[in-house]
Amino acid sequence: MKVHEWMTRNPVTVSKDTDVRGCMDLMTEHSIRHLPVLEGQKLVGFVTESDLREVSSASSVEGTSIEDFMVIDPITVSPDTDIEDAAKLIYYHKIGGLPVVDHEEFVGIITVVDLLGVFIELMGVMKSSSRIDVILGDEPEAFERVSALIRGEGGEIISVGMSGDRSKTERVHFFRLEKCDVERINKRLQDAGYEVVSSAT
Hints:
201 residues; alpha+beta; CBS-domain; Alpha-Beta Plaits; 9 strands
């Protein structure tokens, strides 16, 4: 999955001559937290809501160019960057978004909100679905076996997530399924020796 599939194209942008008040107004008007700063189609800076918060008072920003507050040479990604790599950059650098640049031309932006959309899509959160949370233990073939047991009882797996527990004996796998009879699947898993932590339809 690539950045170009999820990035926001043609976002609101400003030039480096735009004043701080104008940037604040744009962020408020469009409910956004990031503004790429362009010269033509070339990215020359990036300004965030947190950058502007550092401006102490409205009187101090009148007529002040955004050039004095923007991030020069911000971290960027290309349209073909893997979405996982973009997410890692945002996480490690604790930033809210990344400009997307293709051969020195600005083409879009990928933000935390966009990445949340990826997560929702992959996890099937917005679909009508069922969920079963299971501890698989340390059996090497447990995942394949549990998946087969679920399918054998008519469960269609949409996505699978895991808890952050380091110990395999405590790690919970979260199976999201097409809406189905989870009680029947729960019983089948428990009869096979697996611990069902919780489930929901």
